[in-house]
Fold this sequence. Notes:
By secondary structure, the protein is mainly β. The protein has a single domain (2-156), classed as Alpha-Beta Horseshoe (Leucine-rich repeat, LRR (right-handed beta-alpha superhelix)), CATH 3.80.10.10. It is built from one helix and twelve strands. The protein has one helix spanning 19-28, and strands at 2-4, 36-38, 45-47, 60-62, 67-70, 83-85, 93-94, 107-109, 114-117, 131-133, 138-139, 154-156. The strands form three sheets. The chain has a seven-stranded parallel sheet with strand order 1-2-4-6-8-10-12, with no helix packed on it. Helix 1 (19-28) links the parallel strand 1 and strand 2. The longest helix has 10 residues, at 19-28. The radius of gyration is 15 Å and the shape is globular.
Amino acid sequence: MELHLDRFMSDGYTSATSAHEWLSVIASAKLHHLQVLTLRGCELGGSIGTSLLNLSSLSHLDLSYNDITHFPQQMFHLPNLKVLDLSYNTHLTGSLPEFPPGTALQQLFLAYTNYTGRIPDSIGNLKQLTDFQIDSCGFFGPLPHSFGNLGNWRLAVYK
């Protein structure tokens, strides 16, 4: 099951509200089989709560081009999440969590966010990672040696 609400709120269908409120409504709608959720450019603002953790079938989450300020680290560990796009949330702050072995992420887009800190060595546990876009973020330090454990991946870093 897929739910695409791209630019829904910015097209005048409803007034913009907090990201937490909208995502709580979606998560409580008993969409247990929801695999794709796209809320690209919906003018969502504020903090993302943990309500989406109830969507255990979610494999693709696109919250790009919003005004989100906080995204819980637990969300990176949704068991089936393969694509996570938080790019162009220019007020979004945070750091990457530790990634346990078996994490499903294949594509991680954080470009033009205020994510900072070191990239954890456990990034090497993302064996399926093919795209990792962190251009214009605040990461520092060397790339972990564990990047060498990854097979076919593409890293985008621009300052």
